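Predicting holo structure, S-adenosylmethionine bound.
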Amino acid sequence: MTRRDDYYNRAKQEGYRSRAAYKLKQLDELENVISGGDTVVDLGAAPGGWLQVAAEKVGPTGTVIGVDLQRIKDLDDPDLNDRVETIRGDMTEKRTRERVVDAAGGTVDAVVSDMAPNMSGEYSLDQARSLHLARQAFETALELLDTGGNFVVKVFEGPDVDDFRADVEAEFQYVRATAPKATRDESSEIYLVGKGRLTAPIRAGDELEVEIVDVGSEGDGIASVDGYRLFVPGAEDGDTVRVRVEDVKPNFGFAQRLDRD
Ligand code: SAM
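Done. Tokens:
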């Protein structure tokens, strides 16, 4: 049996609306994208396989907002359906993105996008459209994700994907590109998983002058850059030092003094 049949049959047996459900399961196993209690935005959600998986993962206290050009039917399981809200609209239109922001009512924990264009059969055109949808998903993620939030996006492989990946990398602690096992063998799609949305006002490599305002439990100086905590080894409370940022995590970072060897 081919892999395709395998996942198709499993989806039927296990009550998932699409074989794609297994891709989100596999992406989540790999990178732990969705946790209990999360608010998740699912873009390109019809017919609803990812929506079912996301609703299971967020549990009874979580919420999933599914968006698609197509109408998404209510989930059969009433418990799962209670956690789900759906929006019918085009994510390339501003008013749909505004409706998603309104439905979220604040920041969210994960934005996942399986959006894909209608296939024309001409690869370069389909690939360009896929990248456009991926960039729309990225813009939505930047608007909605809380610090530390996660992003998953499908994109067809092609020339400008490296640039897109670099843009995503600048906004997350790290990015992994993967093709889950449930992806068809002949497919040229990959998924980028951005873990840990960075909202810090600084990035690795930045050089700046900071004032040490506290000392951590390990004795490192701590500077505050617009409220973001930066650990500076070898600096004392009250020092003003010039530093280079070495590592930026969602809630704190590390820097080295530049005024000392
Ligand atoms: N993840 C879904 C599941 O598990 O059932 C399958 C998604 S399917 C591969 C891609 C979806 O992207 C289609 O339902 C399509 O309507 C949607 N889509 C494509 N362009 C879109 C757009 N501009 N705005 C919203 N949805 C879009």
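Helices lie at 3-14, 21-31, 49-58, 78-82, 94-104, 123-144, 161-169.
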